[in-house]
Amino acid sequence: MKKTSILLCIAAVSAAVSCARVDELTPSPATPLTFHASLGSSRTAISDGKVTWAAGDKITVYDAAGKSEEFTVTADCSDFTFTSDGTLGSAPYYAIAGYGSVAPSFNTSAKQFSVALPAAVTAGSFGEADLIASTTSGDTFNFHHVFAVMKMSILSSNITKLEFEAEGISTSGNTKIGFASDGSLDVTYDKSRSKAVIDGITGPGTYYFAANPAKYSSFTIYITFTDKKMRATGGSFTATAGKVMNFGTLDGAAGYTEWQLVTDASTLSQGDEIIIADAANDFAMGTELNGSNHMKASAISKSADKSVLSAEPSSDVQVFTLAAGSADGSFALYTGSAYIAAASSSYNYINTSSSVTANASWLFTISSDGSASIVAQGTRKYNSIYYIADDSSFGCSNTADATVAVYRKVEKTEPGPELKELSVFLDETALGVYNYNAGNDVVTPIYQYDIRSGAASTGSDQYAFAPSGNVVFRLQCLSEGLLAEVSFSVSALEVGKSYSAATMLYGITGYSDGTSTRSFTVKKEKDGKYWILDDGSNLGFIITTK
Question: Does the structure show a pLDDT above 50 at 28?
Fold first, then answer.
């Protein structure tokens, strides 16, 4: 499997595997067995239409008695041959690969592998998501994929956690992998969990996780940013073993909190959250009152120009919520449990009050450079908040020129997070019939088929298309009672332009079984694929001009 897709790291190995050759091994008293392993027709398209074995991949083989041997691929290849060191005995043989760092256990009596999917997903984990297994009574393993593979990409550096949820989807827990009499897989999936968690995200990356194949009615993606949580929802989708379901890319700058220097007192409002800091030094009023009736200072980080805080303040920094003061134009500084108040006419004390008194009502005067005077409106003579360097604390001064700096919490929402391509497209699918929900830009497949081989399967689906001239788009899926054909003449498809098309669709709600003329508008283009949407409904198609 491709090195870029399968990341496996296991310690000691008992035998080496190579492409198109058998490694020379020291003779063993037992009869050595030579096997051939192929991904066959079960290859999963990742980037260039197939997955191949990569150097370092592991495969574990069990014999009928439960004895096992682990082999390592030594070079990239599609198929490989490997020889036992004599450990393996009689057939049938059971093989598993793509299991990450620890090989799944094997129940000899039940002839089953037991796989525990991880509760948390890590970057680059396609290898653990795309588990493959096989059995043979001879010398050739034809592997089959156990899970559908879900894919999500992150470009934003402000995302810390993703949660993918769909009712009944098994993204973690125990899975039993057995084999039918014809060698096909007989899998019992764990359906007790419904969420995949991708936690501890520190930057952009692509994530894969395994899920049991099934049709699901809806899904939800919870996106946790550094300071908030958002949700994206989508419609039904079908997860197929060996297929990669791409749930899109989270792009753009995430919403975040910024503490901005206030340079105009008139911009302050009740409900604002602020921090009171020393104008010259990187200290802000803290949450504790010391024995000198001063509020302890706590360290903060300012940007070079002091216009914003360069880091989120710690929990030791007091965040005040502005409330209405008792004097005109004043604010009360609410800590969450009390109000800050000037406490003395003889000393530089500051204290708390359970109610909004005149001494707990503060008038803000702020100059354009951010120098702020915050003066209590009561009778206390020491009434201006200032930073006391000798005590590393904040108290009240009796001079009018005492100044501090005020930083206000601002929610930055632009540019916000953008979930691109939140559509249930198989990676190798170019053509299909889809239902489009414009409200959340979700595309749900009614029918899809892949064109990775460059030709459609006879009796299953048919198509013809061209970059110019007459475009004919056909689908046929007799098992689902669906027949669709769309054809129109075009010199070159253009986004936003409407085309008149002859259509014939069976088995789709709202369409008759005869030919009719409908208008389709090209909604978007990407990588040579065009999305066209019926102007009179949510029904759409994806066609390609390549």
Answer: no
| 5: DSSP letter | T
What pLDDT, in 10s, does the model give residues 405-414?
999 998 765 4
34 forms beta bridges with 83
DSSP 244: E
Distance between CA atoms of residues 195 and 206, nearest Å: 18
Q: Kindly tell me if the per-residue pLDDT of 124 is higher than 80.
A: no
Enter the pTM of the model.
0.46
Tell me the sheet residues that pair with 238: 215
> In 334-487, which residue ranges form alpha helices assigned H by DSSP?
none
Nearest to residue 141, comparing CAs of 77, 73, 69, 61?
A: 61
CA 356 – CA 345 distance, rounded (Å) = 19
Cα-to-chain-centroid distance, residue 385: 46
Q: Evaluate whether 285 touches 308 at the Cβ level (below 8 Å).
A: no
Give the residue among 330, 326, 365, 358 at the shortest CA–CA distance from 342: 358
Residue 279: name the closest of 259, 300, 318, 306 by CA: 306
Cβ atoms within 10 Å of 49's Cβ, excluding its own = 15
Average pLDDT over residues 480-509: 66
The DSSP H or E segment spanning 213 is none
Please state, in angstroms and as integers, the Cα–Cα distance from residue 216 to each residue in 170, 188, 433, following that order.
11, 17, 18
In the chain, what is the greatest distance between 2 CA atoms, to the nearest angstrom? 101
Within a 10 A sphere around the Cβ of 143, how many other Cβ atoms? 22
Which DSSP helix (H) or strand (E) runs through 525? strand 515-526
Pairing of strands 205-211, 372-376: unpaired
Distance separating alpha carbons of residues 186 and 191, to the nearest angstrom: 16
Exposed, middle or buried, 110 (CB in 10 Å: 0-12/13-18/19+)?
A: exposed
Whether a cis peptide bond, with omega within 30° of 0, leads into 417 is no
Distance from C-alpha of 84 to C-alpha of 281, rounded to nearest angstrom: 71
Q: How many Cβ atoms sit within 10 Å of the Cβ of residue 104? A: 19
CB contact at 8 A, 289 and 461: no
* C-alpha to C-alpha distance for 237 and 18, rounded to whole angstroms: 39
Closest by alpha carbon to 52, among 115, 132, 121, 112? 132
In angstroms, the CA 123 to CA 172 distance is 16
In degrees and rounded to multiples of 5, residue 359 shows phi and psi of -75, -10
Q: Give 485's strand partners.
A: 474, 504
Please give the backbone phi and psi of residue 17, each rounded to the nearest 5 degrees, phi first: -120, 140
Residues 6+ apart with CB under 8 A from 131: 96, 97, 98, 99, 115, 145, 146, 147, 177, 210
CB of 36 closer than 8 Å to CB of 81:
yes
pLDDT for residue 95 is more than 50: yes
In order of 313, 390, 399, 487, the CA distances from 396 in angstroms are 23, 14, 9, 80
Q: Give 363's Cβ-side CA count (13 Å radius).
A: 12
Consecutive H or E run containing 474: strand 469-477
If DSSP codes are grouped into helix, strand and coil, which group holds residue 4?
Answer: coil
